[in-house]
Amino acid sequence: MTDLKLELKEKIIEQLNLEDVSVDDIGDSDPLFGEGLGLDSIDALELIVMLDKDYGIKLADPKEGRQIFESVETMATYITQQKGA
């Protein structure tokens, strides 16, 4: 799971072009939206595309994304659960 979290941080930085952010700047449980990393709804759409493209996971309900994209930790847990299903 640690490798997946690191991979997710790298992909988030790359996908969203966060040039001023490093992997070390993103804590596993830091909020990705709002006060944390400060992502917005456009970024959420990019993350949905990333899940589909990189992990083959399609979100049927975009409202699910709010819980899934809460933090790197919640994303890693969701991906692990989907891959195990």
Question: What is the compact description of this entry?
Answer:
By secondary structure, the chain is mainly α. It has helices at residues 2-15, 41-55, 64-68, 72-84. α1 crosses α4.
How widely separated are the two ends?
A: 16 Å
Radius of gyration: 12 Å
CATH architectural designation? Orthogonal Bundle
The chain-level structural class is mainly alpha
Which topology does CATH recognise?
Answer: Non-ribosomal Peptide Synthetase Peptidyl Carrier Protein, Chain A
Largest sheet: none
Protein name: Acyl carrier protein
Domain Carrier: 2-83
List keywords for this structure.
85 residues, mainly alpha, Non-ribosomal Peptide Synthetase Peptidyl Carrier Protein, Chain A, 4 helices, globular, ACP-like_sf, PP-bd_ACP
Can you characterise this structure?
The chain has four helices and no strands. With 85 residues, the chain is an all-alpha fold. The chain has a single domain, classed as ACP-like (Non-ribosomal Peptide Synthetase Peptidyl Carrier Protein, Chain A), CATH 1.10.1200.10. Helix 1 crosses helix 4. 20% of the residues are buried. The mean pLDDT is 92.
